[in-house]
Amino acid sequence: MDSEPTIDAAEDPATQTAASDASLVRLQTRAAQRSRGDNGRFIRVAPELDETVHEELPDDRFLDREISWLQFNERVLQLAGDPLVPLLERARFLAIFASNLDEFFMVRVAGLKRRIATGLAVRSASGLEPREVLDEISNAAHELMNVHAKMFQRHIRPALADVGIRIVRPGDWTDADRAYLNKLFRNQVYPVLTPLAVDPAHPFPYISGLSLNLAVVLINPKTTREHFARVKVPPLLPRLMALPPGEDEDKLYDARFVAIEDVMAEHLQYLFPGMEVREHFTFRVTRNEDLEVEEDDAENLLTALEKELTRRRFGPPVRLEVADEMDDHVMDLLVRELNVRDDEVYRLPEPLDLRGLNTLADLDRSELRWPPFLAKPHPDLAPVERSAQSDVMAAMRSGDILLHHPYDSFSTSVVAFIEQAANDPHVLAIKQTLYRTSGDSPIIDSLIEAAESGKQVLAVVEIKARFDEENNITWARKLERAGVHVVYGMVGLKTHAKLCLVVREENGEMQRYAHVGTGNYNPKTARLYEDLGLLTCDREVGEDLSRLFNQLSGMAPRSKFKRLLVAPRSVRTGLLEKIQRVTEAALDGKQARLQIKVNSLVDEEIIDACYRASMAGADVDIWVRGICSMRPGVEGLSENIRVRSILGRFLEHSRVFRFVIEGEDDIVYIGSADMMHRNLDRRVEALVRITDPKHIETLGALLDEGMSDDTSSWHLHGDARWERHHLDAEGNPLRDLQADLVATYAKRKRKARRR
């Protein structure tokens, strides 16, 4: 392994990110354009403009959403740098950071550039012009990507080597290694390579998005002329290839890997016989891969989307990553031919594209990973006999069941519910929304089995789920061939709601059973995502879902709902009404509290309502995983607002809304909607009200624990700075909420079995 120069920790940004509580990513915030009164509060406006809080809100009250997202990804990077996190999980977080940033450039940056080019971009809610936002993104992304690369080189890579996991560079290959890799190259790599030269007869080749490439400089010995060639790293071959064990018998564990681009680089003479290989460098291009489908003009959405997926591969470049030692003349060629600006070029130490670290994170080294965790059945669904399967619908008849994944098993609850419905001769119909799932999902198999047995099966498939479009098209057609009624939602709206409705004949009457969740019907991600779900046979929920599915599959535009809030019609208005009620209660002198747990909080109208609740004296708690455009802790505006973020072993994904007023019952909703314009206005989303007092208490306790100062989390400040709180005053780790929940739910299940 190449040696790295020693560096003082105070000068190492990677060390600073790992050790410091403060974020490196800072937005140059703009001061409010109105003065404040002597008391620090914003000057009042005419009372008749607002019957609740007679305050004009400041112009600088919103943080920029793009910078907030970059700050979220920096929090992922801080976990990679945390020595308290198991080593292979730290490597995983580096891979997650890389994957996240790829998607950010493909979608957010590309979309912003497209709007600027077409003249459609407008000043953001944070007050920045579109070009200023791009500049802020470029500055922050350059800093973060350099920290990311250096953290791997200076911290994670040496730590992996210390425990016998090495990525071996060509300079450290033994003779035995070279013999093995030479054979591997000839048999597995060489046959799938396509070297592309650049000369008058060969134009500069198209560089596909996210592909890793070798830029090769060649010399013709006869003419001494210099030539350029590009060799693409085959995406279907492993990025990191395992080497046979080394000869050091003293090592208990020795896992050695080589990067496939290093293997290719060492064998370039096979690709260009008769030419002198002078130098080679790796590079990578990110392209615009956001989709634009004009649904109103498309007779068949499926066909239109397939055409757009083909176009996606040829989107314009938005980022060029190159090896930091690349010669300027090669760089100039790439910049010119790819038509990228200088600020879109990112010089980084090799290896590029650290998504490949997932290979190392998957190694079977239990001592270097999170402690083993196996989800167990919910107590209400635990079978009496270990070998038997619980009757899910019978359990639902005894009362609502609140599920908390991954702590409660997804397979013994949601999957079992759908499987049993498919096999039950008394079940007449199954209706299901599918946003993201896996092609080998037992849920897909159950829907097919139900349709083939004569049941009425409806699948509302969202084939526009970003980056899952091709998979969704494949299994949507599989469902259609089996006789499932497949619809693609409503024109102009993505169907993001997580719903399942089962209709069963019981004693001559129709009984409805329902599941409403916050996460996708994907058994694989259900083991990694934190989500909530409600299993219920409540009559009102069943009627609500019947109306909603009729709306999705047919014509029912004026449907009204009882326990559901449904976007785009009633989620926004319903939540605003409840926030307003909290605000009014606070103005009346009552203790009032508002708690929101979401992935993203961007919508200005919701944020302004929260500001007014705070100004009225209500406590406002925001638990957000990713983007947050709210500015908490500002005197006269949001001093009663706290914003927290929790990242860890599981991806916090549930959405919960709690409204607490002194002397009244708490109102709690769970569902699929984040607080973003697209969720509230351009998607079909569903929130269900929780009515069981025990479930309301459970969710309230969860929100309180997430917001507690004793829980490890990040705190957002009014100056747009995220600060990590993970150690107490004595330097001891604060409570890991997810680890506590693993232990708590395990104890609960053991007690349930004893009963």
UniProtKB/TrEMBL annotation:
Pfam families named among the record's database cross-references: PP_kinase, PP_kinase_C, PP_kinase_C_1, PP_kinase_N
GO MF: polyphosphate kinase activity
Residue sites binding ATP per the record: N100, Y529, R625, H653
Domain of life where this protein originates: Bacteria
Segments for region (Disordered): 1-22
EC number: 2.7.4.1
Domain spans labelled Polyphosphate kinase N-terminal: 62-168
Enzyme class per UniProt: transferase
UniProt modification remark: An intermediate of this reaction is the autophosphorylated ppk in which a phosphate is covalently linked to a histidine residue through a N-P bond.
Keywords for this protein: ATP-binding, Kinase, Magnesium, Metal-binding, Nucleotide-binding, Phosphoprotein, Transferase
ATP-binding as UniProt keyword: yes
Domain Polyphosphate kinase middle: 177-358
Polyphosphate kinase C-terminal domain sequence ranges: 392-555, 564-728
Biased composition annotated in UniProt, kind: Acidic residues: 1-11
Amino acids binding Mg(2+): R436, R466
Cofactor(s) the record lists: Mg(2+)
Summary of the function given for this chain in its UniProt record: Catalyzes the reversible transfer of the terminal phosphate of ATP to form a long-chain polyphosphate (polyP).
Family recorded in the similarity comment: Belongs to the polyphosphate kinase 1 (PPK1) family.
Protein name, entry field: Polyphosphate kinase
Organism annotation: Flexivirga alba
